[in-house]
Amino acid sequence: xxxxxxxxxxxxxxxxxxxxxxxxxxxxxxxxxxxxxxxxxxxxxxxxxxxxxxxxxxxxxxxxxxxxxxxxxxxxxxxxxxxxxxxxxxxxxxxxxxxxxxxxxxxxxxxxxxxxxxxxxxxxxxxxxxxxxxx
Amino acid sequence: xxxxxxxxxxxxxxxxxxxxxxxxxxxxxxxxxxxxxxxxxxxxxxxxxxxxxxxxxxxxxxxxxxxxxxxxxxxxxxxxxxxxxxxxxxxxxxxxxxxxxxx
Lengths: 135, 103
Fold this sequence. Notes:
The structure holds two protein chains of two kinds.
Chain A: H1 5-34, H2 47-71, H3 88-134
Chain B: H1 2-19, H2 28-53, H3 62-90, H4 95-102
């Protein structure tokens, strides 16, 4: 029906957040490069990069899922674009699916991304510690 | 079937990324994330379908299986096309630019 709409909505929000974070990081880097006292912490994964992983999972997954809906004739190139939106019963069913399956999809991807971020941070931290110990 | 084919595509692309092409210039990480994202979404869809159909979920009709398999292959191909498109547009290895400038 339209379960992919929920991950798409999340992807739009996270893409905007990523753009804002990226701009902030660039500003900070320029500031750090200009000042002698301030040091840029190296050897860590930028927040914008971590967010780009989530964006890729959400956008990529949603596009492929949308293709499946086109395949099954649930998404059409004419208004209202979703065949379920043509009747009242269809709209109710579609909203129900979005609130259960769609939200479930967005939550599943976000949870997996959180696990990925935690693992990546732990790996970077361990590498840093072992490097410091060897010195 | 679509879920299975996408999961296998995600596993294979991740193995290739890990052992061979983890350099950022190949952008293979993006393809892996795309397939994993789709796999997770289809997994949630499959769980919802299982709750609805119970045992019938594991005994689909042959025609449905073939259709789903065909869809799975098309999904994998679409993922590869998107990845190639990103590679050509961003051209992180500057291969395209070098070739075009040489000509």
